Amino acid sequence: MSGFYMRVLASDHVFYQGRVEAVTLPGDDGERTVLAHHADSIISIREGELRFRDVEENWHEAIVGLGFAEMINNRLTILVDTAERPEDIDRKRAEEAKARAEEQLRQKQSMQEYYMSKASLARAMTRLSATNKKNIV
C-alpha cells in the first residue's frame, strides 16, 4: 500500500509529521478513515481518538480536541486544539477537570461560557476514556 504525508498540528506544538498509510479520524458523524489518494476534502474533527498507521505498519494513537483535517494532493493536514498521547494523560488532572466542568455547567452562565464548559467536559471525558482503555490493555 502506498503512503501519504500527514502533519498533525495542535495549538501549541507539532504532534506528528511523516508518512503514513492510514488515518482514522473522530468526526461529527462517526469515524472516518483516510487512505492514500483520498479525494480532496475537509473533514470536521470532534474530541476523540485519532489512530494512524505509519509506513512501517506500526499503529499510533492520539487524543485530540476539536479541529479539522484537510486532504489535498495526497497530503493530510490535521489542525486541532489539543493532541496528546494516551500514556501522557494524567488521570487525576482529567478527573479534576471533569469535576470543574460539571460544576461550571451547574452555574448560571452566558451562552459562550456554557459552550466552553461543555467543550471542557467533553475533553475531560475523552481523556478519562483514553486512560481507562490504557489501563485495560
Automatic annotation (TrEMBL):
<dbReference type="InterPro" id="IPR020547">
    <property type="entry name" value="ATP_synth_F1_esu_C"/>
</dbReference>
<keyword id="KW-0139">CF(1)</keyword>
<keyword id="KW-0472">Membrane</keyword>
<keyword id="KW-0813">Transport</keyword>
<dbReference type="GO" id="GO:0005886">
    <property type="term" value="C:plasma membrane"/>
</dbReference>
<dbReference type="Pfam" id="PF02823">
    <property type="entry name" value="ATP-synt_DE_N"/>
</dbReference>
<protein>
    <recommendedName>
        <fullName>ATP synthase epsilon chain</fullName>
    </recommendedName>
</protein>
<feature type="domain" description="ATP synthase F1 complex delta/epsilon subunit N-terminal">
    <location>
        <begin position="6"/>
        <end position="83"/>
    </location>
</feature>
<feature type="region of interest" description="Disordered">
    <location>
        <begin position="87"/>
        <end position="108"/>
    </location>
</feature>
<feature type="domain" description="ATP synthase epsilon subunit C-terminal">
    <location>
        <begin position="87"/>
        <end position="131"/>
    </location>
</feature>
<comment type="function">
    <text>Produces ATP from ADP in the presence of a proton gradient across the membrane.</text>
</comment>
<feature type="compositionally biased region" description="Basic and acidic residues">
    <location>
        <begin position="87"/>
        <end position="106"/>
    </location>
</feature>
<dbReference type="InterPro" id="IPR036771">
    <property type="entry name" value="ATPsynth_dsu/esu_N"/>
</dbReference>
<dbReference type="GO" id="GO:0046933">
    <property type="term" value="F:proton-transporting ATP synthase activity, rotational mechanism"/>
</dbReference>
<keyword id="KW-0406">Ion transport</keyword>
<dbReference type="InterPro" id="IPR020546">
    <property type="entry name" value="ATP_synth_F1_dsu/esu_N"/>
</dbReference>
<dbReference type="InterPro" id="IPR001469">
    <property type="entry name" value="ATP_synth_F1_dsu/esu"/>
</dbReference>
<dbReference type="GO" id="GO:0005524">
    <property type="term" value="F:ATP binding"/>
</dbReference>
<keyword id="KW-0375">Hydrogen ion transport</keyword>
<keyword id="KW-1003">Cell membrane</keyword>
<keyword id="KW-0066">ATP synthesis</keyword>
<dbReference type="Pfam" id="PF00401">
    <property type="entry name" value="ATP-synt_DE"/>
</dbReference>
<comment type="similarity">
    <text>Belongs to the ATPase epsilon chain family.</text>
</comment>
<comment type="subunit">
    <text>F-type ATPases have 2 components, CF(1) - the catalytic core - and CF(0) - the membrane proton channel. CF(1) has five subunits: alpha(3), beta(3), gamma(1), delta(1), epsilon(1). CF(0) has three main subunits: a, b and c.</text>
</comment>
<dbReference type="GO" id="GO:0045259">
    <property type="term" value="C:proton-transporting ATP synthase complex"/>
</dbReference>
<dbReference type="InterPro" id="IPR036794">
    <property type="entry name" value="ATP_F1_dsu/esu_C_sf"/>
</dbReference>
